[in-house]
Design goal:
The chain has helices at residues 45-57, 91-96, 117-120, 135-144, and strands spanning 3-12, 16-22, 32-33, 36-38, 65-73, 80-88, 109-116. The protein is an alpha+beta fold. Strands 1, 2, 3, 4, 5, 6 and 7 form a 7-stranded mixed beta sheet that branches. The longest helix has 13 residues, at 45-57. The protein is globular. It starts with a strand and ends in a 9-residue tail after the last helix.
């Protein structure tokens, strides 16, 4: 099964995760999630993740470390493979970085922020068709929560 999409999971120390709010102009509007999207023909897993991230956020800051994770979303029918580039930022870099949303020219996101991972994963957070949290991003974060790189716990 080939990778169907990709994106980036940007972390900073203290179990903080970067999330973007999807705009009214895209599928699944008004939901918080990870930057990412569909793979182009011939793109490899790391290529799609990095392309989607830079289209949606502009240039990414230099990370302390990266890790490419291929995740199978078994909640979809058929299951989809999704590449996630984990981008771990040192606190000094994360504190200075401001994403430049919507580099692709399409208004995909209307806001962004840093969120406490444990608060994001609380079961009371709405996951639904409008508002709350993007379901695929939520499932990916649940799968990753216990595997964060050292120094980001």
């Amino acid at each position: 099964m080939s990778v169907r999409g990709g994106g980036v999971l940007i972390l900073r120390p203290g179990r903080r995760v970067f999330l973007a709010l999807r705009s009214e102009h895209v599928q699944n509007p008004y939901r918080w999630g990870l930057p990412g999207g569909k793979a182009e023909p011939g793109e490899g897993p790391a290529e799609v993740a990095l392309r989607e991230a830079t289209e949606e956020l502009g240039p990414l800051p230099t990370p302390a470390g990266t890790h490419l994770h291929i995740w199978q979303d078994t909640a979809t029918t058929p299951p989809r493979m999704y590449s996630t580039l984990v981008w771990a930022l040192p606190e000094a870099v994360a504190g200075r970085w401001t994403p430049d949303l919507n580099q692709s020219g399409r208004p995909e996101h209307c806001a962004w922020g840093w969120f406490d991972l444990d608060a994001v994963l609380m079961p009371c957070l709405p996951v639904g068709p409008v508002g709350g949290f993007h379901a695929g991003s939520y499932r990916l974060l649940r799968a990753w929560a216990d595997q964060l790189p050292a120094g980001f716990l």
